[in-house]
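ARCHIVE CARD
CATEGORY: sequence design from structure
SOURCE FIELD: tokenized fold
FIELD CONTENT:
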């Protein structure tokens, strides 16, 4: 009886170990879940969205591994550059540990500039088309913003929001993206700390890319107290579940 009980405990431990190893492998080489805590990517991503990021899209670096695994190597294995318009998760360059998610608008060698709220890439204005208004809810009070459809040079289109074209980051220097780096911006242009602020985010090393955001698997607008369980079904944003990210 004692042997059988001991063997049962051993099998349980082995099962748990196998499960942990499989989870770490999947999270490292395939998909990793992330959640959205701020409104910098509204309207593409909302506070309370939970999404999967593909780890294989840009290859693997030391930042592809879970934070509790330290592997001292640099560069990327099976590396590939993002495409303009990709929504990517990366490690914040100033600490190499904080996860950020933004849209990649500039690649190595590109020249990026904001002039009167308009994005310019390599000296050419990136066209945007008015698309009505948007009531933004996120980090602060509700705001009525202007919505545009922006079209990047490679044909990728996405929504952006603007409060006006006279905000602090609407007129910038021209940024020359160095080799081995990309330039990232939030879709909520006037409420995003991104590559335009060199001493906070700045150019993002390709090595710091974690993966490309693929789809939302859960979304909740948690406005009611947690103990009001009867409100939970009504707080889930059902229409956003399993939607792709573009």
């Amino acid at each position: 009886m004692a042997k059988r009980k001991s063997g049962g405990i051993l099998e349980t431990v082995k099962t748990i170990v196998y499960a942990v190893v499989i989870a770490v492998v999947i999270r490292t080489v395939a998909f990793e879940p992330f959640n959205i805590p701020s409104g910098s990517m509204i309207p593409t991503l909302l506070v309370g969205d939970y999404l999967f990021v593909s780890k294989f899209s840009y290859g693997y670096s030391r930042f592809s591994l879970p934070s509790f695994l330290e592997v001292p190597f640099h560069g990327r294995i099976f590396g590939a550059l993002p495409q303009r318009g990709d929504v990517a998760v990366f490690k914040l360059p100033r600490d190499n540990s904080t996860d950020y998610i933004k849209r990649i608008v500039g690649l190595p060698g590109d020249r990026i500039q904001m002039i009167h709220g308009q994005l310019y890439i390599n000296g050419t204005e990136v066209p945007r088309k008015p698309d009505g208004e948007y009531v933004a809810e996120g980090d602060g009070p509700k705001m009525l913003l202007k919505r545009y459809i922006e079209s990047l040079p490679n044909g990728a289109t996405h929504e952006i929001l603007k409060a006006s074209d006279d905000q602090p980051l609407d007129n910038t220097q021209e940024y020359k993206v160095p080799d081995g780096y990309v330039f990232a911006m939030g879709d909520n242009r006037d409420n995003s700390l991104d590559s335009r602020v060199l001493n906070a985010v700045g150019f993002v090393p390709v090595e710091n890319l974690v993966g490309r955001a693929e789809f939302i698997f859960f979304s909740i607008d948690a406005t009611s107290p947690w103990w009001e369980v009867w409100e939970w079904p009504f707080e889930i944003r059902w229409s956003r579940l399993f939607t792709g990210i573009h």
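CARD ANNOTATION: The longest helix spans residues 2-29. The chain has two helices and 15 strands.
SHELF: design records, drawer C
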